[in-house]
Write a structure and sequence with these properties.
CATH superfamily: Dynein light chain 2a, cytoplasmic
Distance between the termini: 8 Å
Protein name: Roadblock/LC7 domain protein
Number of helices: 3
Transmembrane segments: 83-104
Order of helices and strands: HEEHEEEH
Keywords: Membrane, Transmembrane, Transmembrane helix
CATH topology: Beta-Lactamase
Domain Roadblock/LAMTOR2: 9-100
Strand content: 25-35%
Shape: globular
Strand order of the largest sheet: 2-1-5-4-3
Helix content: 25-40%
Oligomer: single chain
Pfam family, one: Robl_LC7
Length: 136
Amino acid sequence: MIKQQANMDWMLKDLAEGVPQTRHVVVLSADGLRMAQYGTDHDTADRLAAACAGLQSLAGAVASELPQSDGRMRLVVIEMDGGFFYLMAAGAGAYLAVLAGEGVDAGLMGQRMRDLVLRIGEHLSSPPRQDGQGTR
Protein backbone atom coordinates (compact mmCIF):
# COMPACT_ATOMS: atom_id res chain seq x y z
CA MET A 1 0.00 0.00 0.00
CA ILE A 2 1.26 3.51 -0.72
CA LYS A 3 2.17 5.24 2.55
CA GLN A 4 -0.01 8.34 2.20
CA GLN A 5 -3.03 6.16 1.44
CA ALA A 6 -2.40 3.72 4.30
CA ASN A 7 -4.87 5.53 6.57
CA MET A 8 -7.47 6.32 3.90
CA ASP A 9 -9.70 3.32 4.60
CA TRP A 10 -11.76 5.21 7.16
CA MET A 11 -12.55 7.91 4.56
CA LEU A 12 -14.43 5.30 2.55
CA LYS A 13 -16.67 4.44 5.49
CA ASP A 14 -18.96 7.42 4.79
CA LEU A 15 -19.66 6.17 1.27
CA ALA A 16 -20.13 2.56 2.34
CA GLU A 17 -22.46 3.37 5.21
CA GLY A 18 -24.21 6.31 3.52
CA VAL A 19 -25.52 4.34 0.54
CA PRO A 20 -27.66 1.32 1.47
CA GLN A 21 -26.72 -1.92 -0.32
CA THR A 22 -23.01 -0.98 -0.61
CA ARG A 23 -20.93 -4.15 -0.23
CA HIS A 24 -17.31 -3.34 -1.08
CA VAL A 25 -15.40 -0.08 -1.63
CA VAL A 26 -11.87 -0.17 -3.01
CA VAL A 27 -9.44 2.51 -4.13
CA LEU A 28 -6.86 1.25 -6.60
CA SER A 29 -3.98 2.47 -8.69
CA ALA A 30 -4.17 2.36 -12.48
CA ASP A 31 -1.94 -0.72 -12.46
CA GLY A 32 -4.34 -2.64 -10.22
CA LEU A 33 -2.86 -2.29 -6.75
CA ARG A 34 -5.19 -1.86 -3.80
CA MET A 35 -4.58 1.49 -2.11
CA ALA A 36 -7.49 1.49 0.37
CA GLN A 37 -10.62 -0.50 1.13
CA TYR A 38 -13.72 -0.62 3.28
CA GLY A 39 -16.21 -3.42 3.84
CA THR A 40 -14.08 -6.19 2.40
CA ASP A 41 -11.06 -8.33 3.20
CA HIS A 42 -7.63 -7.79 1.64
CA ASP A 43 -7.88 -10.78 -0.74
CA THR A 44 -11.23 -9.68 -2.17
CA ALA A 45 -10.04 -6.08 -2.46
CA ASP A 46 -6.88 -7.23 -4.26
CA ARG A 47 -8.89 -9.31 -6.75
CA LEU A 48 -11.28 -6.41 -7.40
CA ALA A 49 -8.36 -4.00 -7.87
CA ALA A 50 -6.66 -6.32 -10.37
CA ALA A 51 -9.90 -6.79 -12.33
CA CYS A 52 -10.55 -3.03 -12.31
CA ALA A 53 -7.17 -2.31 -13.87
CA GLY A 54 -8.15 -4.34 -16.90
CA LEU A 55 -11.60 -2.80 -17.01
CA GLN A 56 -10.34 0.79 -16.89
CA SER A 57 -7.86 -0.01 -19.65
CA LEU A 58 -10.61 -1.52 -21.80
CA ALA A 59 -12.91 1.46 -21.15
CA GLY A 60 -10.10 3.83 -22.15
CA ALA A 61 -9.58 1.94 -25.41
CA VAL A 62 -13.28 2.21 -26.21
CA ALA A 63 -13.32 5.91 -25.26
CA SER A 64 -10.44 6.63 -27.63
CA GLU A 65 -12.71 5.64 -30.53
CA LEU A 66 -14.85 8.73 -29.94
CA PRO A 67 -13.64 11.69 -32.05
CA GLN A 68 -13.76 14.24 -29.19
CA SER A 69 -12.43 11.91 -26.48
CA ASP A 70 -9.07 12.11 -24.77
CA GLY A 71 -9.28 8.34 -24.21
CA ARG A 72 -9.70 8.55 -20.44
CA MET A 73 -12.37 6.63 -18.62
CA ARG A 74 -14.58 8.58 -16.18
CA LEU A 75 -17.20 6.09 -15.06
CA VAL A 76 -18.12 2.49 -15.80
CA VAL A 77 -21.31 0.92 -14.46
CA ILE A 78 -22.06 -2.76 -14.86
CA GLU A 79 -25.39 -4.31 -13.90
CA MET A 80 -25.14 -7.98 -12.97
CA ASP A 81 -27.40 -10.57 -11.42
CA GLY A 82 -27.42 -9.60 -7.77
CA GLY A 83 -26.10 -6.09 -8.03
CA PHE A 84 -24.09 -3.34 -9.61
CA PHE A 85 -20.43 -2.50 -10.09
CA TYR A 86 -19.15 1.08 -10.33
CA LEU A 87 -15.67 2.21 -11.36
CA MET A 88 -14.86 5.94 -11.32
CA ALA A 89 -11.68 7.85 -12.11
CA ALA A 90 -10.55 9.37 -8.81
CA GLY A 91 -7.40 11.39 -9.43
CA ALA A 92 -4.23 10.99 -11.42
CA GLY A 93 -3.65 7.25 -11.70
CA ALA A 94 -6.29 6.25 -9.14
CA TYR A 95 -9.80 4.78 -9.30
CA LEU A 96 -12.71 4.25 -6.92
CA ALA A 97 -14.54 0.92 -7.25
CA VAL A 98 -17.79 -0.08 -5.54
CA LEU A 99 -19.81 -3.30 -5.55
CA ALA A 100 -23.42 -2.87 -4.41
CA GLY A 101 -26.53 -5.01 -4.08
CA GLU A 102 -29.35 -4.90 -6.60
CA GLY A 103 -31.45 -2.59 -4.41
CA VAL A 104 -28.90 0.24 -4.50
CA ASP A 105 -30.06 3.72 -5.46
CA ALA A 106 -27.91 4.27 -8.57
CA GLY A 107 -28.32 8.05 -8.54
CA LEU A 108 -27.33 8.30 -4.88
CA MET A 109 -24.33 6.04 -5.45
CA GLY A 110 -23.08 8.14 -8.36
CA GLN A 111 -23.55 11.36 -6.40
CA ARG A 112 -21.77 10.04 -3.29
CA MET A 113 -18.89 8.65 -5.37
CA ARG A 114 -18.46 12.01 -7.15
CA ASP A 115 -18.62 13.84 -3.81
CA LEU A 116 -15.98 11.56 -2.33
CA VAL A 117 -13.69 11.97 -5.34
CA LEU A 118 -14.05 15.76 -5.20
CA ARG A 119 -13.55 15.91 -1.44
CA ILE A 120 -10.44 13.74 -1.25
CA GLY A 121 -9.32 13.49 -4.88
CA GLU A 122 -5.84 14.80 -4.21
CA HIS A 123 -5.36 12.00 -1.66
CA LEU A 124 -6.54 9.38 -4.17
CA SER A 125 -3.91 10.01 -6.82
CA SER A 126 -1.20 7.45 -7.24
CA PRO A 127 2.28 8.71 -8.19
CA PRO A 128 4.04 6.93 -11.07
CA ARG A 129 6.30 4.07 -10.02
CA GLN A 130 10.04 4.39 -10.26
CA ASP A 131 11.85 1.22 -11.42
CA GLY A 132 8.80 -0.95 -10.67
CA GLN A 133 8.59 0.27 -7.07
CA GLY A 134 5.78 2.25 -5.45
CA THR A 135 6.44 5.17 -3.14
CA ARG A 136 6.93 3.97 0.44
